[in-house]
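Before the break, one more example. Copy the sequence into your notebook; we will annotate it together after we see the structure.
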Amino acid sequence: MSQKLREFYVHLSRNILFTTNHTKKMSLSELFKKIFSRLFVGNCLGMLILTVLLGAATYIFIGYYTHHGEEITVPDVCGLDENVAKNKLKALGLQMEVTDTGYVFNAAPFSVLEQSIKAGGKVKPGRTIFLTINANGPRLIALPDVADNCSRREAEDKLRVLGFKLGATEYIMGDPEWVYGIKVGGKNVVAGTKISINTPVTLVVGAGGTEDEYNGNDSLDFILNTPDEEEFSEEETEQSQPAGQQTEDPFA
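Here is what the structure looks like once it is written out:
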């Protein structure tokens, strides 16, 4: 047992001596040798080259994707037909999209009224130009509910906001400034009817001076409350004679 214990202590002392010898302070020259070793320098150069290559590839890709240095002059397509404008822009490498419609009386149907980028502007290839196209006819709008529902001023404001044109006001007997109806082309129209914004709308408005409507109960009340003819004649005779004079019987 003592022999094994002795061998253990010998082995432990050897390990301690080995560890102590390898934990000595590293000299400055040894430190530089390790830093500038071929393996370390090779790794640093490899990382640097990889970084440069990735940066160059990114720059080339961004330039290709954004068409760096390439510019296209936007043409004037206002007044052209929609299809003609589309083909003209496509030939230059531009895209087209219709975003709105309007109506101009003296412009051709489906012609371009406006373009988002003015003619002569510089854009990148593939840029989308937004266009406003002339409609085939005037816009139709549903009439609001103004008849027998609001005053003339309120009705006019509602119609103007929607884009309607107002014609001469037609006055009838009724409550002053109260809208009784709407006419288009001389005909009465109801709320919800779709009318062209270029068609004048006529408001039928009360002008005052209302008349009492006939009521059958008025004549009935007069008949029921009227006194009998005999009673009425007797009272009239008594009032016409002087006081103290007796009425003579004509048949006596």
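The longest strand covers residues 95-102. Confidence is low (pLDDT under 50) at residues 211-216, 218-226, 247-252. Try to locate both features in your own notes.
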